[in-house]
TrEMBL record:
Pfam families: DUF4331
Source organism: Micromonospora haikouensis
Organism phylogeny: Bacteria, Bacillati, Actinomycetota, Actinomycetes, Micromonosporales
Listed name of the protein: DUF4331 domain-containing protein
Length: 464
């Protein structure tokens, strides 16, 4: 749901589909920021013999804006190539894969990493190896070791990884897209009243699924613009982050012996900043268009942030539960709180000790105040839970972004801009009912933070 199959056309092109984006000051290296972009969502771990991989014909990029104009000042570009060891075998591997150069591994993938800044491209690395997919205990007997081998520290200060990881996003897709059902409140749903007598147990629909991850850990000096100081209220401390995928404009299909070829300039087909923006805010008719545009064009979508459809639906779906939100909706006042959270950042003075405002340009970016250090005791509700190091100040892997977003839309954040508004009691409790504890693969304490991918042999677990 964060951005899994969020638009009609990109749902047909999962290799280029960005599913989640994370940006946070690194707890294992506080002088750096960790940027994680996931692609190829909803991977069934047992999906062989053609296991999942990045696209050789896709240009993947993570962008950083450090001056608030919604344009990239620093970009990290990943480009992939695939090599087949044995062209006469249909198998992904013919024996255990115990190292990245194993002769048993038949389909290896490599990538180059380029940094683009100040109008110049600098190739940081060539032919870095991805790990294989996690096939099973016979094929990939020590997957954690393979992932460590595929984690590279570069001479320019970056640490980088590209490969399969466990999907860390937790969401009850089956319930939410069944007419907006929230299982902890299902007995209050306008239609659920006839079916349910009590609250239900949530289901993490993305659990035991994998993704393909681009992760780069970058020294703060390499992402922030030059300034005399970087305090918590200094604009220079704040960066905006988004990810994109692009394909060449034309593709010519080969016939028989001729290979497919791509030509022309690269055209953006996918992007992601804040979780759930295109998924929940942008209407169906405009989702594909949004994926092709840069953040500087997001003023076109501001009206959908000012009056989000979900805010109007909640009082209808849950009669009597959100009367104050219903009254607010009927005033037709623009939701200035959501405009700040999603499109400009939160200005100083609204939350004590916090700001991640980037200026007047309306752009969907994950905004991160890099002067706020990692929390010793992270709260999964981020800024709403009093933890200023969490979403919507960037996004950490365990942040409960679905609950945070639902609560904001339900009115919890309105008092930031309207002291006279009192949210409904339910607004501060609304949730799909999931947390990081509902992710089977534990998150890592260190880079690249997302857990070891699920293997096909043990997924689903064999019954005893």
């Amino acid at each position: 749901m964060s951005s899994h199959r969020e638009a009609p056309e990109i749902a047909k092109d999962p290799v280029a589909d960005s599913s989640d984006l994370y940006a946070f000051v690194s707890p294992d290296r506080p002088d750096s920021v960790t940027l994680i972009a996931n692609y190829v969502p909803l991977q069934l771990p047992s999906g062989g013999p053609n296991f999942f991989e990045f696209g050789d014909d896709v240009r993947y990029e993570i962008h950083i804006d450090n001056d608030g104009d919604g344009k990239p000042d620093v970009t990290y570009r990943f480009e992939f190539t695939t090599e087949i060891t044995n062209p006469n075998s249909f198998l992904y591997n013919t024996g255990p894969i115990e190292s990245l150069d194993s002769k048993n591994w038949n389909r290896k993938q490599f990538y180059s990493l380029t940094r683009i800044a100040d109008g110049r491209e600098h190739r940081l690395a060539n032919k870095l190896a991805c790990p294989p997919c996690n096939v099973g205990p016979l094929s990939t007997p020590n997957y954690a070791a393979l992932a460590r081998q595929a984690t590279f520290s570069l001479s320019t200060g970056e640490k980088v990884f590209a490969g399969q990881r466990a999907d860390g996003f937790f969401v009850d897709l089956g319930a939410i897209f069944d007419l907006g059902t929230l299982r902890p409140f299902q007995q209050l749903h306008v239609a659920g009243k006839k079916l349910f007598k009590a609250e239900g147990e949530p289901v993490n629909a993305t659990d035991r699924m994998n993704v393909h991850t681009l992760a780069v850990q970058v020294p703060l000096s390499r992402v922030r613009r030059r300034a005399n100081r970087y305090g918590t209220h200094d604009r220079a401390s704040v960066i905006g982050v988004w990810t994109s995928a692009s394909r060449q404009q034309a593709r010519i299909l080969g016939n028989g012996s001729a290979k497919d070829t791509a030509t022309g300039p690269f055209v953006q087909v996918s992007r992601l900043g804040n979780p759930l923006f295109n998924e929940v805010i942008v209407p169906m008719s405009k989702k594909d268009e949004w994926n092709t545009l840069p953040p500087t064009e997001d003023k076109r979508f501001a009206k959908f942030v000012e009056q989000p459809e979900l805010a109007a639906l909640l009082p209808v779906l849950y009669p009597g539960v959100f009367p104050k939100l219903d009254a607010l909706n009927k005033t037709k006042k623009p939701r200035a709180d959501l405009l700040a959270i999603l499109l400009t950042g939160i200005p100083a003075g609204l939350i004590q000790g916090f700001s991640n405002n980037t200026g007047d340009v309306q752009a969907d970016m994950l905004r991160l105040n890099t002067a706020i250090r990692p929390s010793a005791k992270p709260d999964r509700f981020g800024v709403l839970g009093g933890d200023l190091a969490g979403f919507p100040n960037g996004r950490r892997v365990a942040d409960d972004v679905v609950s945070i977003a639902l609560r904001a839309i339900a009115g919890v954040t309105v008092p930031l801009v309207d002291k006279g508004f009192t949210p409904d009691a339910a607004a501060g409790a609304v949730t799909p009912g999931l947390s990081a504890a509902d992710v089977t693969a534990p998150f890592l304490r260190n880079f690249p933070f997302l857990g070891t991918p699920y293997d096909g042999f043990n997924n689903p677990p064999a019954s005893s």
